[in-house]
Design brief:
The protein is of the alpha/beta class. It has four domains: about 30 residues; about 290 residues, TIM Barrel, CATH 3.20.20; about 45 residues, Oligo-1,6-glucosidase, domain 2; about 90 residues, Immunoglobulin-like (Sandwich), CATH 2.60.40.1180. The chain is built from 14 helices and 22 strands. Strands 3-4-7-11-12-13-14-15 form an eight-stranded parallel barrel. The chain has a four-stranded antiparallel sheet with strand order 16-18-19-22. Strands 8-10-9 form a three-stranded antiparallel sheet, with no helix packed on it. Bound molecules: calcium ion (3 copies).
């Protein structure tokens, strides 16, 4: 009898290991160690991400299928055909790990479990299958710097100075009073009954101690755990904050780069078709390393800043500069470009930034999809979702993380229950169902521009060349060239008509007679021949707030 019971318990423990990769014992939670790298064949084409257009999705706000008011994995699966139809080829999912929900998933309590509100690991694997069937790669957020206060390791760490996991977080007996690296009068060390812990973002997000080799090993196992599920890569959160040394040395430390070089060499490179992109605001290209030894991409927040501001102020020079710089990453690496994301530091929703001006939303998208770099759309951007009033949300970040607007019915078709947070009142005018029917909608503009990028490799893989223009106060122009295809893009971002000439003499365009094809966006527009007599004075008329996309076969 005893033997049978022991056998039963063993089976149960094994079963729980298999499902969650962790077992509980009297000491707390112990995670499986030394996870092996598995050979997971990728169904996506080699280096798929270099030509991809990504869609950032906050699952909790995307589509609810069980009426609990929270978006879920099954809801995302239901909407994969919408995404396929939009033309995107990559999905970035904001954190999928079980979290305490103080920070929309960036407060992890279990690195190896799917958020309970989202569904199960089986649901997640089903999502990966369904996305891959549609040639969509899936990357997930990974939050290396901090956990939730309610992560069992932090709870243990905080319980006593002698606790087993004490050294997994950063503790001091006295407040060292470090100056906060970006918030004036912000606190970095937080008081408890038995010491101060470091938490650079918030008191409820304690930083891990990466000087402890056990932490590093745990995180490497977590990375392998997720890669073994068949995901196609990661978006790494706040990479510049990983290791801190003293008050003056809290960000972008050399030891931090060593950690990512280790991840790249010993994990990422062993899964050959994955993509890694990192968030490190305003640290330039430092987390791209030499181009091949840290992350594949880093978000270029200067890009969205200058594109959005340049369109608001109608200053073509600053936008042209931002586009040009989007290709200047170390060889082998790529900047990720965007107009907006889930963080207000990167701006509010473009529709809000442009004061509800649809034309500027569309121009911004046209710039994004013709620029060098790997473009990312933030969910709802493609339908002109607005920023919600601050009084309607529990905390500021939530004002740009409201439920997706699918149709004009109650709760915008997001849920049949009570939505987790208020839906933006503009949903009756701006939603997927209405915009799909309107050829001039923001959504149809996005679809058209995405198709143009997907159908023309010079826009994704091509080089960048600046084209001289006769009136830099109205217009900027550039060329993207790949093999024997060149695309010339000209933007007038002002309220005035622009009657201008283009100068190709500083480009690598061959000085011979070529007639551009009809405009890629508006097939009704045809162009005159480019030849040796007009090579430096090619005339074009561009109406206010409009653009031309000319394709040449060389
Ligand atoms: Ca739900
Ligand atoms: Ca949760
Ligand atoms: Ca840190």
């Amino acid at each position: 009898m005893k033997k049978a019971l022991f056998f039963l318990i063993s089976i149960l423990i094994l079963a729980s290991c298999k499902n969650t990769d962790k077992i509980s014992n009297e000491k707390g939670i112990i995670y499986k160690e030394n996870i092996q790298i598995e050979n997971i064949p990728s169904t996506l084409k080699k280096d798929w991400w270099k030509e991809a257009i990504f869609y950032e999705c906050f699952v909790r706000s995307f589509k609810d299928t069980n009426g609990d008011g929270n978006g879920d994995i099954k809801g995302l699966i239901q909407k994969l055909d919408y995404l396929k139809n939009l033309g995107i080829t990559g999905l970035w999912l904001m954190p999928m790990s079980e979290s305490h929900f103080n920070a929309d998933g960036y407060d992890v309590i279990d690195y190896r479990a799917i958020e309970k509100d989202y569904g199960t690991m089986d649901d997640f694997k089903n999502l990966l299958n369904e996305a891959h069937k549609r040639n969509i790669g899936v990357i997930i957020d990974f939050v290396p710097n901090h956990s939730s206060l309610f992560h069992p390791f932090f709870e243990n760490s905080a319980s006593s100075k002698n606790s087993e996991y004490r050294n997994w977080y950063c503790w001091k007996d006295k407040d060292p009073n470090w100056v906060h690296p970006w918030t004036k009068n912000g606190k970095t060390w937080h008081k408890t009954d038995n010491g101060y812990y470091y938490g650079v973002f918030y008191p409820f997000l304690p930083d891990f101690n990466y000087k402890n080799p056990s932490v590093l090993a745990y995180m490497k196992d977590n990375l392998k755990f997720w890669l073994n599920t068949g995901i196609d890569g990661f978006r790494f959160d706040a990479v510049h904050t990983l290791i801190e040394n003293d008050s003056e040395h809290q960000l972008n430390q050399p030891e931090t780069h060593k950690v990512y070089q280790d991840f790249r060499e010993n994990i990422f490179n062993k899964y050959p078709n994955i993509y890694t992109v990192c968030e490190a605001p305003f640290t330039g290209d430092s987390f791209l390393g030499n181009g091949t030894n840290e992350f594949n991409s880093t978000f270029r927040f200067e890009y969205n800043k200058y594109v959005i501001q340049g369109l608001k102020n109608e200053t073509p020079r600053s936008i042209g500069k931002a586009v040009e710089q989007a290709i200047q990453s170390p060889s082998g690496s790529y900047f990720a470009t965007l107009l907006s994301n889930h963080d207000p530091f990167a701006g509010l929703r473009p529709f809000t930034e442009f004061n509800k001006n649809e034309t500027k939303c569309k121009l911004a998208a046209s710039i994004l999809f013709t620029s060098p770099g790997i473009p990312f759309i933030y969910y709802g951007e493609e339908i002109g979702m607005d920023t919600i009033d601050l009084s309607q949300v529990p905390y500021p970040d939530a004002q740009i993380r409201t439920p997706m607007q699918w149709d004009s019915t109650l709760n915008a078709g997001f849920t049949t229950g009570k939505p987790l947070r208020n839906i933006n009142p503009n949903y009756t005018l701006y939603n997927v169902e209405l915009e799909e029917k309107n050829p001039n909608s923001i959504l149809n503009h996005y679809k058209k521009m995405i198709a143009i990028r997907n159908n023309n490799k010079s826009l994704s893989l091509g080089n960048y060349e600046n084209i001289g223009v006769s009136d830099k106060n109205k217009v900027f122009a550039f060329m993207r060239k790949y093999n024997n295809e060149a695309i010339i893009v000209v933007f007038n971002v002002t309220k005035d008509n622009a009657n201008i000439t283009l100068d190709f003499s500083k480009t690598t365009l061959p000085n011979k007679a070529i007639t551009p094809k009809n405009d890629l966006f508006d097939q009704n527009i045809s162009y005159g021949e480019i030849n040796s007599s007009n090579f430096s004075i090619y005339s074009l008329n561009i109406e206010p707030y409009s653009f031309k996309i000319m394709k040449l076969e060389l």
